[in-house]
Structure formats: structure tokens, C-alpha cells
Amino acid sequence: MNYFLRKLGTSLLNLIAVVVTIFIVLRMMPGDIIEPMAREEASRLGITYEEAYERVADRYNYNPQEPIYQQLVRYVKGLLRGDLGTSMLNPKNTVVSILSVALPWTIFVVSISLIISFILGMQLGALMAIRKRGIINNSITFYVTIVSAIPSYIIAIILSIIFVYQLRLFPKSGVYSIDVTPGFNMPFILSVLHYSVLPITTYVITSTGGWILNMKGSSVHVLGSDYVFAAQARGIPEKIIMRRYMKKNAMIPMITILAMAFGGMIGGAPLIEGQFQYLGMGAYLAKALGERDFILYQGLLLCISISVILANLVADLLYSKLDPRIRLE
Amino acid sequence: MRNLTVMRLRQIFSFVLILVLIFVLTACYSNTGNDPGTSPTNDSDSGPVVNKERVKRIAGGYWPAPPGFGGNLIGAQVGDVGYYVYESMFLVIVGTDRVVPRLAKEWKHEGNKTTVVLHDNRKWSDGTDFTAKDMWAYYLININSSAITRYLEAINVVDDYTLEFVWAEPVISDTQKMLLLAEGWQAVTPYHIFGEFVEQVAEIMKKGTPYTGDPTKRPPFGLVFEKDDQTALKNLYNDFKNVDMEKPIGTGPYMVDKVTNVEVDLVVNPYFPDSDKLEFQKIKMHTVSDYNSLLSSNETDSFVGTLPYDMARTILDASGTMVMYPLLEQKSVGVIFNTRVQPLNDKLVRQALNEVINKKPVREVANYWAVETGFATIGLVPSTIEKYVDKDVLAKFARYTGNTEKAAKMLEDAGWTKNSQGKWVDRNGRSYRFVIAANAGWGAQGITAASEVARQLTEFGFETEAKAVEATIVVSNMKAGAYDMMIDFVDMTWNISDPYKAFSSYYGDITEKAGIDLSAAPLILKDYEGKELNMKEAVSSLLYINDEQEYRDLVGRIAWATNDNAIAINLYQNVMAIWENSATSKGLPMEDEFKKYDRMMPLPRTEEEYEEIAILNRAYAPFAEVFVRNKVKPR
Amino acid sequence: MHAIIRCQGKGLLHMNDDPRKPIMSLRNVDMYYEIKRGLLKQPARIGAVVDVSLDIHEGEVLAVVGESGCGKTTLGNVIIGMLKPTRGQILYNGKDLSQMTRQELKEFRSSVQLVQQDSYAALNPVKTLYHSLCGPVLHKKLARNKAEALKMVHEALDMVEISHEELDKYPHELSGGQRQRILMARAILMRPKLIVADEPVSMIDVSLRISILNLMAKLNKTLNIAFVYITHDFGTARYIARNGNICIMYLGKMVEYGNVQRVLEHPSHPYLQALLTAVPVPDPEIAKKKRNLPLKSIEMPSVAAPPPGCRFHPRCPYSVDICETEEPVLLEHNEGLCACHRVKELPQWSLRADR
Amino acid sequence: MTPKNIIEVRDLTVEFKKPRGSLLAVNHVDFDLREGSVTALVGESGSGKTTLAFTMLNIVNTTGKILSGSVNYNGTDVLKLKGEQLRRYRWKEISMIFQSAQSSLNPLMTIQQHFWETYLVHEPEADEKKVIPRFFRLLEDVMLDPDRVLKLYPHELSGGMKQRVMIAFSMLLSPRVIILDEPTTALDVITQDYIFSILDKIHNETGISMLLLTHDIGVVAKVADRIAVMYAGRIVEVGDIFTVFRHTAHPYAKALITTAPSLLDTDKDKEPIKGSPPDLIDLPPGCAFHPRCPYATEVCREKCPALTMIGEDHYVACHNSLPGKGAAAYE
Amino acid sequence: MTRLLHSFKDFFKVIFRNRQATIGLFILTFFVLLATVGAALTPLDMTVDYANRFQMPSWKHPLGTDYVGRDILAQVIHGSRDVITLGVVCAVMALGIGVIIGSVSAFVGGFTDTLLSFFTNIFLTIPAFPLMLILAVAFNVQNIWAAGFILAIVSWGGVARVVRGQILSLKHAEYIIACRIMGLKYWYIIFKEILPNMVSLLAVQFIGLFQNGIASSMGLMMLGVLTYRPTNWGVMLSLALQNTGIAYNPKGLIYFVTPIVCLALLQLGCIFFSSGIDQALNPRLRTE
Q: Would strands D226-231 and D38-42 be described as parallel, antiparallel, or unpaired?
């Protein structure tokens, strides 16, 4: 309990710091984001620049000419009310409403990929630790090396060229087909799967390598430990040793990496989701950036940072749940 | 250990197999899951009719993902959907500036009054009658954001189908009246839904007091409001925009059926008069993710967008049925000089630099089909100059041909010399380095054009560097004088290509980028007869000239003076491409010449051709006009 | 028998006057560690060394013996000045360490050296021995140039019986015994007056231990360096400190002090008695007959929460009520010092006794 | 009456491949473990005693390879056991207490899970409820509170407790031999003493054979009744504890026994063994000890001495220690 | 000096003993040569030659020409200069910031440590790539230094954490304690005792940062937010995607594939080389 509270406290502090940091970074923007829009509005409506400026700033709950602390107060007040501001490009879209549409898809894709790549990585990593030589080992090593040399976005490009453009097997954009009704029905589920398979594949291909390497290292370490040796001396069958001794112990340090991997994947989303036009957080991040919609960007960035903090918290809790040594502290 | 690994391997293998299976299965799903009717087949058994479902698939059109999709046109919440769902009182075909009536039946200008009679057989797509009140509602609710209100005294609802516009003094010319009435998206606010807001605006308007100040800064309807009332108006406008409607309610030929964040399905609006005559039963719109692949694979029937030449050719070859129509845009790209710095403050130098640039290679890399112009910069959209300027005047315009020898001579005449490194030095022995800024938001086009210009200038003897600058700051930096030159739009209008519009955007925006502030000091230029023109005043006087010859004369003088002043280089007038799929639609323009040009069509040769193609472009004229006129049909 | 010990509030107790002056004196030294336990809770205080007073004389060998967790290593660190005691004074040549000038402190840093238990960890693994030994000499300006430094290092190597060729090797290329000698060499290069040796032989092969101990004895004799020998092994303690004193620690407190021979022959404190009975002796006839002193519990209490009163009482077979409430002080007993309420009443103890 | 040997090691050689070359951890060793005895195998680190012990369970590290020899347990060659047979042999017949009791338990399992798991794999039919009393009894035998200890995780036990748990654990399947690999190195003297008294009690009650690996002569003297001294992968002296201590024949064994500083010491200086332990990858020819031996002769440099009997139940491998000469030769 | 030369020789001896590391070293050397010598020897002509676009490989253009007829090989070679400089600048800066913050944190300790660790943690929490995107826009990158700085800002966190951990553990290493007992000065301890122990860690970190910096910068260029230099591989890739219609246009394949292959090779080189570096810089592993 104490452990949990302490972790929660740290996360909260972290969260506050992240809010402030992101806020400051965005206020460091050179020039004035409102300016081009105000000019456009002024010329379109034939009103004075000052008037247009005030109008636009008012529309976006943002005024860069205010002192920074006042802006921060305004922003934080909005945050506490659950108001992250309004997209600059589409004043009617609140950031929260965009988040509510985009976040579930990203979480869906990332967590499914995380689970698949984690399972694969654990299995293959353990396998590599047991068998030090042989074709399987060599081919896994080859795969890991290649995958770690090619950035994920290039894999996304190649996959999309092959499967989307050349073979035309997968859709070019979107998260589900317009012909299905969202809800718990088979066509919808199939459609969601159909649209998400390529992003998931990309994530799985790129992140499995890291898991394999980590798991292999950890497994080799555990295999060399005394308790595995002792278990052999006790006549425990290999199968049980692998499952209960090696894999479980080797996986525990992986849990901490889990949160980091989650952060990394979500961080890479703008490129991957952008490539497949899978309209999750990443695609919106790329879109917001491309259109210089900084308020939306700020909201999205904050949201994914919060997800990373939460993932860290969850990983910590998971860790304490799995490792009896933590509970005592 | 060995047995164990084999067993483990089998486990992993089956896991991977399941994953691959899911991959393959979902891949197959695409072939069965898609609506078969929407994918046109070239099956010969079905005879000449291939588009049996009579669907038009359109690529493009940004609309926000739900929940942002609201049924309200204002604030662009429905994107391209608006072109099919809403109608306006009039529409203007950009480029020809022809005004076409839509909801209006007849109209009449009498002194300071214009009376418009509307069709009486129109209904909103929810079944409610469309009346003059709906029109009136639009102008009131958009009191601050509609350009016309600045020139109006009042709008009166005469009866259910008649509106009366009262113009403020001095009364603008009839042409300008028409353009203002037709401009933008008018007349589309259902009173039966937003009546509450409108009536409140009307209440507040009663509290306004007449304006007496500077006529160029006249507020809407010439009314001045207390601060509280102003805030109330602002709030009303914002509240109005934030009303969420599930689907838009309009009077147009189609209405929204289904929406996702990348697709919208439109079906025929049953309340539209002659809706039974609409040939396309359904419009499927897809936001553009990768137009390239959509076009190559014939997965769309219509798209508007400029592509590099090779890509266009590849797409046409890959698809086999797509047709590409290039169409001149009402804007041209050029290089704006910063006239505050030496030596660009010297008109002669600017003219010489204009002469240096060979525009062909620039055009080839940046916008292949674009049209080069011989002008420095004229303020008008170049393609319209012959329409507004007399031939004999036009002959007096200076032309620039990319003749570097001539340019060198021009500089030498001004006292410049070339130094040992082949760089130009001025009378004081000073040499110069230039920086051309390109808007990074333009992507490769901007920077390649800038690089090519820079290369030519450097070759000529002015060391020049091209630089991509972040979109949010490039303009303000240029206005602050941070760069020597900037690639941007020069002679252009955002919508209607009327000379007044074109000049007023030039003498405000472009001049400011060049470092000339017209509000600080009047800009006086000499015309071809040596007569001095106060540019700002001359431009605004265009608004009130009813006499055509007088109008043309003034336009010619302004354009000549602008060209002579040469604060920018007009590189080319932009061209955009319009793509149509001949496999699913028939009745497309120049249908009999597809073979001749291998479906990469030439620029429109006549005004008719221009108009035919222009209305295929949603940005030029509401595209729905195509279907209403029943020209393009499903094949 | 040469020590001056100040006992709690009872003034200085003069034990057999020593002609040699003490180079190092500890006066009522406490060393508490604080361990943080979250934001809200008070940090836990662990008394690793509690109220210890000691004198170390020139050329003396003092053995500090105790089980793991008794605070002997902390005491060693306090003596070399690495840890600043929470309370009490440390006097070097009669001067308080905390009030020394820079110059004096610099001298002190040279004069008191440490030889660690883990000889591999005590040498920088990425530096050759040449760099590890010459570097400090040059840096401290003990030699004027490289050649002189090398000469000094060679002398020191001769002293610890290591051949000069080993200088170009890395630590991992030497055996444990050699490394331990190098540590000795590094210590004597600083020309120390006192070396604290923290279990220097416990990680070394049995067959090499004696030679290291002999080396220490040699350094003690020829260079007149005083040694504080920290260990848990009575055998080596007795061997190295054969004429010196021994100090027995239990849970951060000193429980017995006196001449090695006398203390080991006639231990006064029940804890020491129990300890000695448990020590295996390399003679099957004696070892097999030996009986242990029956302790009440074999688990040592936590240092963080030491028992009240006499810290040994929960395990002591002789404990009575007073032991649970009152902390015993070090009192003179049998020519040494012992902290036990019942020291006078305890039965005689003998190593070879078959009780 | 010749006592029965429960384990007979014959001509055993175990090799480890290292980047620098191969290393013979056990070099043609013959060794007997008498039934019901407590035999101490003494040697410094790297002398091969742990490897020798591991071959008795037929678990040699992955890098190790048995080149020759056999380990006979009750007539079966342990080294030839495979798969299920081997698995059942381990712990059921011979159990082992490791040097690092701290780390020889799975940190993620409670003590009860350990006990039950091991029991179950050897007695697949077992019923957990019926076995628990047995766990209780075993833990009570080592003076632990079974109720509490069974529910604990390894990290929640102190070092002494853990070692006692390991002793109870090793007795779980009533094996006939326990190998104790330096069971008390990390422990305090008092705890060490206590643990040996428990082992002593168990030995007295069950008559189990024990093989104690240690480098501490004191411990040997206290616990063992036979002693075998190993040096550089070979056994150099074996015999009854009293005989070996009183009439030490091998110079290395002699040094080991006499130079260990002890409580009993007088204040005499001791002469250390010169030199340092041999490099096992690059062993000196002949007797491995000759470079350090004060009595080495020409023959020691050339020929490796064989283990020969020099008295009743007393064997030594030294050229200069002929029968009858005994240890007196060196004094 | 001879000792230094000696350890230098040792270093390469170990690298060459490791097959992977040798390959890695060769690849890296190749690219460094490409960026220095190659770029100096190959003239870069960015003139548009529209008529000769999409040419197949020939003697004149060994890798053919791009969408406006410029030689691809020359672009790749000159691009490698930018790519490698950017990677090095990023790695040096990130390492600098990380080492300073990490070591100050570890050496000073106390509140400073808490504060700096917290600060580091923030940068580790905010996902790197999106932060990098926004910084790239915010700083309006105009040159390689600014680009490297942006990459460094988001990647120093890991270094700081590792350095802090390493120094904390080294600080309590017994040989450091021995130095303190000998009364050696702080600078001696830091530079002569601690630093040599961190060389291999820093080298591995450096390569990691270099690798990461290159991959991320290319990602940024793909999204069009880093400075436009048409020869940079990332920009080449983005131009290939935008201007050649690679999905259907096999003519642009070489232009598209070349930067990818170069990137993958460079990354492989880094991975391989860093696999041997720990061994080569650690005397214990070296002699085994």
C-alpha cells in the first residue's frame, strides 16, 4: 500500500512537471501562431488586424500576448475542468473530443502489438538462451539484427507499398469501414481488425527484436543462476524449470521495460499511424503538426505523456505483484 | 534440452502461424467486405453500363472526424460535403466571374436598392419550406463575417420569397454589387432551427447607432455598438457555430447519409426539385490519404490536386481510365523582393533581376503545366489581363524574357560592374548576397523553385541562397524584413478574380511583404503617361466606377504601374489538375480527344471549355452544378 | 597492556601506563546511519557504532573482532576518517579531526591507510598497477618526478615481495594474494603511521593467508606501522595481534577489551565465551569433544532495533532482570574491560573444558 | 570389516573449455565415499572439489565435459543415467546443499512450493495434504517454526534460517547421501556451529552418509570422520581423520593443517607455503605441487605420483612419502 | 605515450578478433571515407536536368538519376556528410548534456540530485519523437547544429540516468574509497580514476546516440520538419515518396531504395561495432 502510494505520488509530481514542460515548450514557438490566422481572417472579412487578432485568440482560449504565468493559470484552470482547449483548425472540435476519438484506436493497436511482440519476444528470447547455436538461433539473430537496423517507419513504408498499394489487400486509411455499424457485431469487429492489421504488424515486426534481445540476456542470466542449477540437482524436470524458474524470473525485469516500450511505441506512432493513415493519436499528431495546430498538438502530447506515466505506474504495480521481493519494502 | 526446444519451437511456430493466418484472413476480408457496387468492373457481360449503382466516388474534402462533424456549414464543419448539401443564392464561377443564379429566380438593381426574388419551390432536406427568412437569417447571424454587410445599409424581408438589399452611400458599381451578392457561401441558415439566434441579433441591431467616421473602415450595416452588445454579438455567433447538428440540413441536391472519420456517404435529397433526374444516386467521399494510389487503382472517380508531371503520367498509365484536366488557378507564384534593403530598393536592379530569371526550368520543377508570364508583376491574375486591359495599353507593358545579356546591360547602365570573381558590384564597389525564403509548409515545390531561382541568380553573379522557413513565421519574418526575397503567391485572388479584389489583395499583402506600408505613407507610382497614381486610392475607386471604359482604363494604368515598379517576379501562373474517371462517368469535357492527348488533356482553349472544366473543381464552382446540369452521368 | 579507556561518565580509567603515546584516540564515538522510509515516516536510525572509546598506540596491533553486522567495518571507516561520527571525538596525535587545518588533514590522510577485504574491487580494473601505484605518489608530490616515483614503487614492491615485472599488469591478471600485497604496497607508499586492515585475508586461499599475515607483521615491525586488524576470525586475530590488544564488538557496542592472549584464554563476557566455544579448532580430538555454550537464541537481533538493556540479553544464558533494563558499562575486569552486569558471578570458562 | 562404499569414483576426469585452453578440473580421480561416514573433501578454491561433487549428481556445467571415468552409486554408474532415470536419482538418492543457500532457492516461490514441487516430481501420486506433516517434521528437525517458514519467500529468511531450510529440504526424500558444499561459509561462527550440531544430530539419527566440501580445517576437525585433500584436480591424501591429522603424509596437506591460524596457537611464527596456487590451464609437469614443495626432488618434476596406501585406511600421492616414513619425514 | 600506443594497438587487435566488430568497423570507416574523401572527389550538381530524369544506372550515373535528372550517387555521397555530421553532433551534444547532468547529479547528491533526477525523468516520460517534432518546429532549424541540438535535447535523458548510476556505483567502489583515503584531490579521482572506467560505457552510449540520432532525424525529415537539404537521406526518401509515386512507379525505385539501404548499412555498422567495443575497452575482457 505504502509502495503504491509512493509510486502514485511520484507519478503525480511527474505529471505536473510534464504539463508545465509541454506548456513551456509550446510557448517557445517562434512567431505567433495566431498571427497568420488573424491575417487571413482580417483579409477575408475586411476587418482590422487588431480586431481579427482578438477574435481568433478568443476563439482558441489562447493569447500569446498575455504574460506566461497568466497563460499557464488559464491553461491549468482549463485542464482542471477537463478542458484542453479547442483545435485551432476546427474551432468546433475540442481537443478532448478529438482525443476521445483517437486515443482508443492507438491504445488498441499499441497494446495488441505490445502483447503479441511481448509473447513472441519472451518465447524466442528464452529459446535463444537455451540453444546457443543452430539454424534457429542464427536466423533469429539475423532477424533481430536486420530489424534493429531498419527504423520502424521504413518498415511501415515498405509494408504499405507492398500490401496496400501493390497487392491492394488493406485499406488506405481509416479505422473501420463506413459500411459497418459501430458496436459489438461481427462485421464491425472484422472491419476493425482489417484496418488495424498493418499497423499492428509493423509494431510487432519492429519491437519483437528488442524483446528477444532483452529476454535472451535476462534468460542467460537466470540460467546461470544458482537456483536453476539447484533445481536441476533436485531432479525437477526441464519443462518445469523452464516455465517456473527460468521464464518467470527472466520476465520480471522485462516488466519495467514494458512501460518504456509502450512509451517508445506510442512515440513512434506519428510516423507509423501517419503512414497507414490509421487515425489514432499518432496520425492526429502528424496532422496537427502539419497544419501547425499547436493547441491540438499540446493536448495530444500531454495525453500520450499521461499514458506513458500511467503505463509506468501499471508496470510498477505489476512488478510488485509478480516479484515477492518488492512487497516487503 | 533438445526435445524441449523442439516442443517450444512447435509452440512458437503455431503462434506465429495463427498470427499469419489472421493477417491473411483479414487481407481476404477486404475483397469480400467492400461494397461490390462501388468498384467498377470492366466486365463485358454487363454491357455499356458499368456503374450500375450510379455512385460517384470523390477523393478529397477535409472534414473533421466525428464528433467534430457538425451539420453547420459555418466554420467549415462539413468540408466538401457543403458543395453538395447546400445551395447559395448565386454562385460565381471563378476565373470567368460569371454569376449563375441558384436559389434566386430574378433580381433587379434600382439606385441604392437591389431586389432579389427567390424560387418558391425549394425545401430544406428535413421537409421545411425554404423562405426569404432563411436568407435574411444568414446575413444577420454572420453580421461580422460577411463581406457584403460593410456596404449595406439594411436587408429587408419583403415577403416570403423577396429580399431587398439597401446599399450604403457611396453606392458601389453594379458589377461589384453582383459579386458581393454571389460571393462565398450565402443564404444557407435554416431559420426554423437557428431562428432564436437570429432574432436576438436583430434585437441587438436595433440598439446600434449610425457610424460617421472614415468610410473605408465602415462597420457592418454602418452600425456602432456598445461594448456589451458587441460581446453579446460575438457570443451569439460562437454559440451559433457550436450548435451540434448530427447531419447538415440544406437545400442542395444531396444529403448526408453516413459519416466516419475518413468517409462520407451522400444520397439524393428527396426534397430537391427534380431530384428524380439526378443521375448519380450516391456520392461517396473519401478524405485523401494518398491520392496517388487512389487514382492509380481507379478507386476514385474524381479528385482535384496538382501532381508532378511524372507522377501524373504514371498514374494515368497505371489506371488506364483516369483523365487529367489541367486548369489555370487564379494565383501565380513569384519572388517578392524586400524593397527596404540595398540594392533591391532600386527599381532598376529589380527590373534587371526580373530579366535574369529564365522561368521555364523553374516552372518545370515546381508546377509542370503552369503558364509562364512575361510580366514582373501586375497585381491582376495574369490570365485575366487581356479581359480587363485594352490591347494597345497592353503593348506598352514591359516584358521580361530571361535574357541575361540584356539584364547585364541594364545593370551596367546603372553603373554596376563585374568583379574578378564574376560577381556584380555596385557603384560603391559593394557586392551582395541574397537569401530567398521559401515557405516550408509548401513542401518540395517551394524550396525547389527557390533553389532554381537562387541557382540562376548565383550563375548570373549574385550569390543567392535558398532557405526553407517554418510556415508560421516565414510571412511575419518577411514582413519584418528578415529575408531579401521570398517565394510566395504574387498576382492572385483567393476567390473572385475581379480586378478590384486582385489589386486590393496586392496593395496590402504583397506590398507589405515587400516592405511597403501603405497605411503609413501613400504609395505614389507613375503610369505609362507619367501621371501619378496614389495606388491605394486608385484601387478603392475601382469599387465605384460604373462606366466600363473608365474602369478598364484605370485597371490598365494600375497594372502598368505595378509591372513597372517590379517589386516581385511573377514566375508562373499556377495550374491545378482535375481528375475524372472515364470508366464510371460519361459526358466529361473534351471526351472525344482522350485518345489524342492520352488522357492528359491540354489547358482549356476556350471560355466554354474553361467553364466546363472549372465546375468540375469544387473550389471554383460548387461541383454539384455538374450533376444539376446533368452533363456528367454515370456510365 | 597499554590502553587508556574512558568509560561512560566515570572518568578515565588508567590501565597499565604506556610509554608510547597514542596516535589515534576515539572518544565516545557514535555512528548512526539514517535510513529514509518514505516522506511521512521518520527516518530509521541505525547505530552501527555506539559509544566506543579506544586508543591506538604507535606500532600497536589492535584486533577488532565481531560477527557480521556488529559495526566493526563502520568502526574502521570512522578511524580512517571516511565517516564523520555522529557524536564523539576522533583525535589524531591529540588533535581533533573535525578541527584540523587543511595541512594537518592532508598529513592525516597520508598517515592513516586502509587495506580492504576485496583486493580486486580495491584496485581500479582499467588501470595497470603502475598507474595505480605511481599516480597517487606523483599526485601527492611524494616524489619529484616519474623516475623517483618509480623508485619508490619498486622499494614498496620489494617490501611486499612482488616482482617488478608485475607493474605492467592489470589487476585481474594477478592472483588474490598478489593483489593483497599490492594493496599493502599502495598503503605503505603513503608512509602511514596506521593501517586499518579490514578482513584482509578472508577472501584469500587458505594456503596463502599465513604469508599475508606474516607480511603484515613484518611491516609492523620494520616500519613501525600500527595496525587495526578487523576480522571475524579469532585464529588470525590471535596470530597477528599476539602481543597487542583485542576488542570484541556486539551490535555496535564494545563488549570486551584487553590483551589478546588473556582475553582469549579467559574470556569474561558471555557473548565472547559463546563465540569462542563455537569456533572450530583444527584438532579433531579437541574439536569433537567441545560443547557449545547453550545460547537462548542463535538469531542476532536487528541492528535497527537493538534490544533494551544489555544488547546480548535475549540470547544470554545468564541474563537476569537487570540485563533487560539497564545497559551495562565497560568496567575493568581481569586486567581488561568488560561490559556485563554479571561478569563477577559468571563461572570460569576454558577452551578445552568439557562442560 | 571393510566398510561398504556407497559411492565409488573411478578414474574420473572432467574438462572445461576456456578461451585460453582447456582446464582439467578433476584429473583422474579415484574416490570412495563410505556408507554412513562423514567425509570431508578439503581443498582450496579451484582445486576441483565442487566439480567432483557435481559429477556424483551427474550435473556438470554446460561448459564442462566428462572425459573419462565412472561414478558408481550402489552399483549403478551415475554418469550413464539419462533422462527420467537420472531425474529420479537426483535428490532421491543424493541431495546437495549448496554453498550459496541464499541463491539456491527460486525467489518467486515460497518454501512450501519448493518442497511440494520437489516432492511431487519424485512422487507423482502424492497428495499435498498428506505430505504437509512431513514438511513440518523436517523443519522442526532443523529447529524452525514450520507454520511460519513454509509460507515465506526465500528473501524473507535470514542466512542461517535459509541454510537450515536447505538442510530440511535436502532430507525431504530421505536420500542416502547428502553433499554439503561449504554450507557455512557465509555464516557467523555461532550459526555455523549450530548448523553443524543439527547435521551431527541428523547423522546420528539416520546414519546418512555425508560428503562435506570445505576449506576450513577447523570445520573438518569438528565434523568429519574421514578426510580427503584435493590439490589441482587430484586427491593427494585420504584417510581417517585422526590418522591424517596425526600422521599427515602429504606436504600440502601438512601445510594446510598446520598453518591454519587457530585459537589453540602458541605464539610461534608459522612458515607459509611459498608460491601461489597453480594455474589450472597451465599445470606444471609432474607433481602439480612441486614448485611450492620444500621437499621436491627430480622425480617430482617429472612424474605425477599415484595415490598409494601408506597405512591402514591412509592413502597419499607423494613420491617422498613412502610407507612407514609417514609424516615424520618432514619434521 | 608508448603505453597509449600500446593500448591503441590492443584495441584494434581485439576488434579484429571479433568478426562482427570488424565488419562494423569497416562499414563505419567506409561511410566516414564516403563523407570525407568521397564527397570531396564527387562533384555535386543539383542543376535540374528535366530531360534526363529517371535514368537507369550507367557509367555517368552509377545509380541513375532522380526525378529531375540529378545524379543519385552524388546526392547519397554528399548526403552522408550531413547524416554523419548530424549524428555526431547529436551524439556529442546529448552525451555532453547527459554526462554533465548525470555526473553533477551523482557527485553533488542531496537535493540537487533529487531535482536533476526528477528533471531527467520528465524528459524520459515525454515520448521522444513527438517532443522532437515540436522542438524541430519551435526552433526553426536552419543548420546542422540546431538540428543536432534538438535531437540531443530529447535523447540526453537516458545518458544522464546511466551516467548517474555508473558514477554512483563507482563512487562507492573500493578503489575510489582508497583514493579518498590517500587524500587524492577530487579532480584526480574524477579524471584519473572514474573517467577511465566510464570510457567503454560512454563509447557505447555514443554509438547508440549516433545511431538513434540518424534514425530519428530521418524520421523528422520524412515528416518535413527538419531543415531542407535535398541531399540528406531523409529528405531524399521523402522526396522519393512525394515526387516519384514510388508505389506504382518502378522507375523511382533506385532513388527510393538507395537512402534506405545506406541507412540500414550505417545502422548495422553501428550495431556491429558497438558489440565489440565493450570488449576492446575493458582490459579484463580484452585479455580473456
A: parallel
pLDDT tier for residue B549 given thresholds of 50, 70 and 90: very high
Mutate to test the interface with E, among C109, C126, C167, C203 (most CBs of E within 10 A): C126
| Burial letters B130-148, b for 16+ CB under 10 A, else e | bbbbbbbbbbbbbbbbbbb
- Out of B116-120, C223-227, D207-211, D255-259, pick the least confident: D255-259
Phi/psi at B614 (5° precision): -60, -35
Nearest CA in chain C to E200: C126
Strands B282-286 and B302-304: unpaired
Q: How far is CA B529 from the centre of its chain?
A: 35
What are A68's three cell numbers? 506566461
Given the C-alpha cell 593500448, which residue does it identify? E7
d(CA A249, CA D107): 8
Interface touch D121/A233, C-beta < 8 Å: no
Q: Are B280 and B581 in contact (CB under 8 A)?
A: no
Q: Tell whether B493 is within 8 A of chain A (Cβ).
A: no
Cell of C229: 586488524
pLDDT tens readout for residues D237-277: 999 988 888 888 888 888 888 887 777 766 677 788 887 78
On whether any CB of chain A is under 8 Å from the CB of E27, the answer is: no
> Which residues does chain C have with pLDDT short of 50?
1-17, 353-355
Task: List residues bridging with D212 in a β-sheet.
Answer: D40, D180
Taking only the tens place, the pLDDT of each residue in E204-261 is 999 999 999 999 888 888 877 776 667 788 888 888 887 777 777 777 888 889 999 9
What residues of chain D lie within 8 A of the CB of A328, using their CB? 155-156
Joined grid coordinates for residue D155: 528473501
Q: What is the pLDDT of residues E145-156, one digit of tens each?
A: 888 888 898 889
C116, C140, C172 member nearest E178 (Cβ) = C116
Cβ-Cβ contacts under 8 Å, A120 against chain B = 12, 15-16
Chosen for mutation from D108, D152, D177 (greatest number of chain A CBs closer than 10 Å) is D108
Give me the residue from A21, A270, A301 closest to E122, CB to CB: A21
- Report how far residue E31's alpha carbon sits from residue E259's, in angstroms, rounded to the nearest whole number: 13
Tell whether A248 is within 8 A of chain C (Cβ).
no
C-alpha cell at E118: 526528477
| Beta-bridge mates of residue D214 | D42
Q: What per-residue confidence (pLDDT) applies to C169?
A: 87
Q: How far apart are CA C192 and CA B586, in angstroms?
A: 104
Encode pLDDT of B175-226 as tens digits.
889 988 887 666 578 899 889 999 999 999 999 899 888 777 788 898 999 9
Euclidean distance between CA atoms A305 and C232, whole angstroms: 53
Range with lowest mean pLDDT among D2-11, D162-171, D319-328: D319-328
φ and ψ at residue B576, rounded to 5 degrees: -115, 160
Cis bond leading into E283, ω under 30°? Answer: no
| Structure-model confidence comparison of residues D166 and E230, the more confident one | D166
Preferred mutation among E114, E177, E182, E187 to probe C, highest tally of C CBs within 10 A: E182
- Strand, coil or helix: what is B587? coil
Percent of chain D with pLDDT over 70: 94
The DSSP 8-state label assigned to residue A278 in this structure reads -
Nearest Cα residue in chain D from A230: D104
Place of cell 592472483: C175
Test B4 with A238 for CB contact under 8 angstroms. yes
- Complex ipTM more than 0.85, yes or no: no
C35 touches chain A (CB under 8 A): no
DSSP-derived pairing of the beta strands C245-250 and C61-65: parallel
B539 versus D183: which is more confidently predicted?
A: B539
pLDDT of B336 over the 90 cut: yes
